[in-house]
Amino acid sequence: MAIPLLGEQAIERTRHAGRAAAATLAHVAERLAAGVSTADIDAWVREDTARRGGHPSQLGFHGFPAAVCTSRNDVVCHGVPRAEERLRPGDIVNVDVTTRLDGFHGDTSATFCIGEVSAEARHVVEVARRCREAGVAVVRHGVRLGDVGAAIEEVARAGGCSVVREYGGHGIGKAMHGPPLVMHVGPRGQGVKLKAGMAITVEPMVNLGRPEVKLLADGWTVVTADGSLSAQFEHTVVVTRDGCEVMTGCAGRAALAPAASGLSA
């Protein structure tokens, strides 16, 4: 399947969707605290997305039962919100928001610390954030996806962490998920060559322990195989001639509250 190249109008619509998703994520982040249920997060995402004129892209996608993914502690991705799952002091939780607005999608996530967390938890969150930033910094016209993945992998390895290989980023625009598959590992010089106008997500999933994962019986929730902590940060970006434009740049900037600090998304 061909990878779409977005024109100016499509880029503008993707920009609006990305900003809406980022604003919803920031809205949720301000309310995170011990005692909040992941079902509360789902409700807040539904309410805020609607208030901005959008629709939660994840709701019903391939049967997904919620409007947001909430991935806590050893959950790598696709955590399903539940009324009985409540945040506790010392938790880390990734909140993954995707908004469809005016026919285009914006996708972003950040991992937040609930109260005081262990040094190990803070470390994996910070490494995951730096991994995303390293990947975004490489994106530009003419670069191969293997170069993006290698940059991410090097930062993770330097921090004593690992990058999940079974899941990656994706193309985005009119479709929430499309080509190319964005792997967050190398090698350099291989993979799809990026072109100006391509829209992709950069969203490395970083484990404190080994990279292997397993799928739980609900068919959605992915956890670390060794039970170690996992963290993730995500941006939607559009490739340009000299770099990329981050469509979701404000994600997490309002989240620096004592109860829930999202390390600078």
TrEMBL record:
One Pfam family cited in the UniProt record for this chain: Peptidase_M24
DNA-binding listed as a keyword: no
EC code(s) of this entry: 3.4.11.18
Binding-site list for a divalent metal cation 2: D107, H170, E203, E234
Binding residue positions for a divalent metal cation 1: D96, D107, E234
Keyword list, A-Z: Aminopeptidase, Hydrolase, Metal-binding, Protease
Cofactor: Co(2+); Zn(2+); Mn(2+); Fe(2+)
Catalytic activity: Release of N-terminal amino acids, preferentially methionine, from peptides and arylamides
Cellular-component GO terms for this entry: cytosol
InterPro entries: Creatinase/aminopeptidase-like (IPR036005), Pept_M24 (IPR000994), Pept_M24_MAP (IPR001714), Pept_M24A_MAP1 (IPR002467)
Entry binding sites for substrate: H78, H177
Keyword Transit peptide among record annotations: no
Occurrences of domain Peptidase M24 (ranges): 13-240
GO MF annotations in UniProt: initiator methionyl aminopeptidase activity; metal ion binding; metalloaminopeptidase activity
Swiss-Prot/TrEMBL GO biological process terms: proteolysis
Cofactor notes: Binds 2 divalent metal cations per subunit. Has a high-affinity and a low affinity metal-binding site. The true nature of the physiological cofactor is under debate. The enzyme is active with cobalt, zinc, manganese or divalent iron ions. Most likely, methionine aminopeptidases function as mononuclear Fe(2+)-metalloproteases under physiological conditions, and the catalytically relevant metal-binding site has been assigned to the histidine-containing high-affinity site.
Function: Removes the N-terminal methionine from nascent proteins. The N-terminal methionine is often cleaved when the second residue in the primary sequence is small and uncharged (Met-Ala-, Cys, Gly, Pro, Ser, Thr, or Val). Requires deformylation of the N(alpha)-formylated initiator methionine before it can be hydrolyzed.
UniProt subunit comment: Monomer.
UniProt family annotation: Belongs to the peptidase M24A family. Methionine aminopeptidase type 1 subfamily.
Protein name: Methionine aminopeptidase
Taxonomic lineage of the native organism: Bacteria, Pseudomonadati, Myxococcota, Myxococcia, Myxococcales
Gene from which the chain derives: map
